[in-house]
Amino acid sequence: MTPDELRLLVVEDEPFLRKAVVASLRFLGFQVAASDNGTDALRAARNHPFDLLIVDVMLPGIDGFEIVRRLRADRNQVPVIFLTAKDSQEDKLTGLAIGGDDYLTKPFELEELAARVRTVLRRSRPAAPEPVLSFADLTLDQDSYEVRRGGRPIRLSPTEFRLLRYFMLNPGRVLTRSQLLSQVWDYDFGGSSTVVSTYVTYLRRKLASDGPDLIHTQRAVGFSLRMPRPDDEPGLAEARPRKVSPDQPEDGPGRPASPDKRQLSPDES
Predict the structure, then answer these.
(1) Chain-centre distance for alpha carbon 178
(2) Which pLDDT score is estimated for 192?
(3) At what angle do helices 89-97 and 64-73 cross, to 10 degrees?
(4) CB 76 within 8 A of CB 51
(5) Which secondary-structure segment (H or E) carries 215?
């Protein structure tokens, strides 16, 4: 995520410092809002999705520590950098204990504040996903759209690829049919789950041709990607659809119907 996509809130009652911090951060490309008191700052933080708060501790009305206490009580985990003229160890520990991410003592250089901002944002943003997902001897390359098991390439339709990717992003977790409809087919209503069962069966057959079954049925719940267990039932638990050859994509006549009753192609996004 680039700086111009990140929203920061600066809360400082001293006008010159507030304007200097806001100007500096905007120069770096951030979107910056500002407040000069704790009451307005708390309202803004509750009503808008900021990526970082820069909060003076000593504020009119509600002080900086109390702003963060109330946000954390709301389960709002927005990162916070405290600014303060107090340099005591006790104040620093208080700020960090209530949920602050960093603590900067006045006076400070704007360059130092910018470095702290970048560091806190980097820690708080999720890491970019690895392009290659792996489970047991199965690999899925999200960049090249290649799937291999034991080194052998496996040909999947786009829908099968998306389905396997979602399983591999959630290994060991039982995924319901409604979750799979929502995440793989982008359906957010309670449609028929027949299409899910059908495509899971297609995918299991292709994966099981080179090793033990890795996708398992949790009866009346859904499916999970996991290693086989001794008490697993042999074979596929789902009803088998029409037979397809390994080289035949499931996009011809007789393909499974989608939840909204129209014909669904595996190559359809």
Answers:
(1) 19
(2) 60
(3) 20
(4) no
(5) strand 215-218
| DSSP 8-state secondary structure symbol assigned to residue 3 | G
How far apart, in whole angstroms, are the C-alpha atoms of residue 113 and residue 27?
A: 13
Which residues contact residue 118 at a Cβ distance below 8 angstroms, ignoring those fewer than 6 apart? none
Angle between the N-to-C axes of helices 194-208 and 158-169, in degrees from 0 to 180, rounded to the nearest 10: 80
Query: What backbone torsions phi and psi does residue 22 show, to the nearest 5 degrees?
Result: -60, -45
Token pair recorded at residue 51: 């990526």
Pairing of strands 152-154, 146-149: antiparallel
Low-confidence ranges of the chain (pLDDT < 50): 188-190, 236-269
Q: Looking at residue 22, what is its pLDDT?
A: 95
Rounded CA-CA distance 249/12 in Å is 62
The radius of gyration of the chain from alpha carbons, rounded to an integer in Å, stands at 26
Half-sphere exposure of 66 (CA within 13 A, CB side): 12
Q: pLDDT tens digits, residue range 119-161?
A: 999 888 765 567 899 999 999 998 899 999 999 999 999 889 9
